[in-house]
Amino acid sequence: MIHLVAARSQNTLKVFTRDGSLWEYFESSGDAWGNYGVVEGALPPWGYDCWAPVGHYVLGPVDVFDTPIASEGYGQIPVLDVDAGSLAKLMQGGYATVNGLTATIGGIEAPLAQLSQYDRSGIMIHCGGSNSPDPLADNQGLFRTYGCQRMLNVDWKELAAFLQPLQDGNVIVFTTLETPASLGQ
Predict the structure, then answer these.
(1) How many angstroms separate the first and last alpha carbons of the chain?
(2) Furthest-apart CA pair in the chain: how many Å?
(3) pLDDT tens per residue, range 134-144
(4) CA of residue 4 relative to chain centroid, distance
(5) 9 vs 34, residue with greater confidence
(6) Is 158 helix (H, G, I), strand (E, B) or coil?
(7) Which helix (H) or strand (E) holds 98?
(8) Which residue ranges form the domains of the chain, and what is each CATH number?
């Protein structure tokens, strides 16, 4: 298991290796436009444009774009609800214990978050930023998303390069903690 933990009140994303040691620590944000009423009906509880609920998720395959785009930068990594197969692998490997709708994974007890209950099939970890003066610069700054987790371009590229060879046969868990800190932009 690889475990990414988004401490959103601190705008950080920590990446832990299979043995539980910290591989890297990135600046990252889960702040979203919908949390401020920008989109009609989007205020929590978690309309389409709001940050993902606190909980455990799994990551899908890294998608590096052939041509970067301003809104999402150089690529995206899907954040999905934990499926039964992934949960079974985590439990068989001793990485998770389940208690109803919550699980302890990597020593963190949190809900098995269900994006689908909020009409979301998934969110993404991506970079870029349409509101950035230079959205494809290495350090473009962090700007609100429509519910996704944003990273600096240079950091997203490093994370993507780390995760790509580990995707086959590994469950990669993404855990969100706390309400995101406001970026104000």
Answers:
(1) 34
(2) 47
(3) 999 999 999 87
(4) 8
(5) 9
(6) helix
(7) strand 96-99
(8) 2-177 (2.40.440.10)
- CA nearest 148: which of 37, 60, 28? 28
At position 67, the amino acid (one-letter code) is T
CB of 141 closer than 8 Å to CB of 129: yes
Q: Which of these ranges, 9-18, 26-35, 146-155, has the smallest mean pLDDT?
A: 26-35
Residue from 117, 116, 142 nearest 131 by CA:
142
Whether the Cβ atoms of residue 167 and residue 61 lie closer than 8 Å to each other: yes
Radius of gyration of the chain from its Cα atoms, rounded to whole angstroms: 16
Alpha helix ranges (H) inside the chain: 84-92, 153-163
Distance separating alpha carbons of residues 177 and 144, to the nearest angstrom = 17
- Residue holding tokens 């929590």? 44
Q: Per residue in 156-181, pLDDT tens?
A: 999 999 999 999 989 999 999 876 66
CA distance 147 to 120: 10
- Which run of H or of E encompasses 104? strand 102-105
Which pLDDT score is estimated for 156? 98
- Whole-number Cα distances in Å, 151 to 35, 166, 179: 19, 20, 17
